[in-house]
Amino acid sequence: MLIQSFSSSRNTEADVTDERIYRARRHFLQGLAAAGLLGAHGSASGAGVSPYSEVPASQDPDWLRDKLMQARWQRRDAGDEVLTPFRDVTQYNNFYEFGPQKGDPACHAGNWQPQPWSLWVDGEVARPGRLPLDELLAPYRLQERIYRLRCVEGWSMVIPWLGFPLRDLLERVQPSSHARYVRFESVVDAENMPGVRSGFSLLEWPYREGLHLDEAAHPLTFMAVGLYGRSLPGQNGAPLRLVVPWKYGFKSIKSIVRISFLRERPLTTWESMAPQEYGFYANVNPHVDHPRWSQARERRLPGRLFAPNVIDTRLFNGYEEVAGLYSNMDLRVNY
Q1: How far apart are CA 235 and CA 104, in angstroms?
Q2: In a 3-state reduction of DSSP, which class is residue 281?
Q3: Which end of the chain is more exposed for a tag (fewer CB within 10 A), N or C?
Q4: 280, HSE (Cβ side, Cα atoms, 13 Å)
């Protein structure tokens, strides 16, 4: 049985950069980049590295652009780890609706326009209904959180997400006392997603994921609408995706159109395909191997062809504050 835990992040106020200082530094470095004063790796004498200098402008509507610019930035939950370059974050993806290869999502999602967009909320909840994206985001001041992302395939990234805690939405829609699980569904757009209409796909659509309600309510669980200071590109799950940093990446479902509150545990897409390989909980665990490969180590992108950046994998991807959720569970059985 899961035990609800709202333990605070291990970071203190000293780990959080003041928004004005951060914004000023970002704009200063972007100005240097525009003037050609930054080197090949985005560094200037004494100025450090600006991974934002390579981020292209987005064509967001005014209301969303304003939301993104007013985001509260928090350096939390990833320590001093180096951010994965924007190009790698947006060019190396698993999003099978657009195709099975890592480059397929970036190739096929470029012209996809996920607007207008609505989220449907239903099930064991006091306030069901349809929420257009602007209405969904209206009450929130977006946060920018730096999280590690660990794929079940053995590679990882460090990404600055923009969004809001999922528990804020839970408080808004008010799950009933009968709700124990949350199910998420991705969009199905056969016209613009070649993977959906492919006869060779082994997956059933829509893509489905799920969390225990206690996991969904944990402060680290995040609903992302952007990364690197701009809205989500299509290949990264535009316009709304889940980010659960202590679980393998396939749990962080993309392009969400429906959230349902349930009494019984939902059957998720990968669990239904191969339950012996992909369990419901899918917590990052170096002590529980995938049946076909070890999970003890990971390849941090980008790395180099003959010198990959291989590091040790940490339990819960290093987010030890979630351990209380699983205190009465055998993680080798409930994988």
Answers
A1: 9
A2: coil
A3: N
A4: 15
The two beta strands, 297-304 and 155-165, are parallel
The residues near 109 (Cβ < 8 Å, ≥ 6 apart) are: 95, 98, 233, 234, 235, 238
Give the residue among 59, 115, 62 at the shortest CA–CA distance from 239: 115
Q: What span, in angstroms and rounded, lies between the C-alpha atoms of 129 and 118?
A: 10
Cα of first residue to Cα of last residue in the chain, in angstroms, is 14
The helix or strand, by DSSP H or E, that contains position 194, with its residue range, turns out to be helix 194-197
What is the 3 state secondary structure string of 17-67? Answer: CCHHHHHHHHHHHHHHHHCCCCCCCCEECCCEECHHHHCCCCCCCHHHHHH
Among 147, 136, 143, CA closest to 162? 143
Whether omega for the bond prior to residue 239 falls within 30 degrees of 0, making it cis, is yes
Q: Report the distance separating Cα 297 and Cα 102, nearest Å.
A: 20
pLDDT in tens, 161-214: 999 999 999 999 999 999 999 999 999 999 999 999 988 888 999 999 999 999
Nearest to 99 by CA among 224, 234, 208, 209: 234
Cα atoms found within 13 Å of the Cα of residue 275, Cβ hemisphere only: 5
Q: How far apart are CA 168 and CA 217, in angstroms?
A: 8
Strand order of the β-sheet with 256-262 is: 129-132, 118-123, 256-262, 181-186, 208-212
In whole angstroms, what separates CA 115 from the centre of its chain?
Answer: 20
- Contact yes or no for 210/181 (Cβ under 8 A): yes
Give the pLDDT of residue 287.
Answer: 97
Tell which residue, 248, 242, 249, has the closest CA to residue 224: 242
Of 235, 207, 230, 245, nearest to 59 (Cα)? Answer: 230
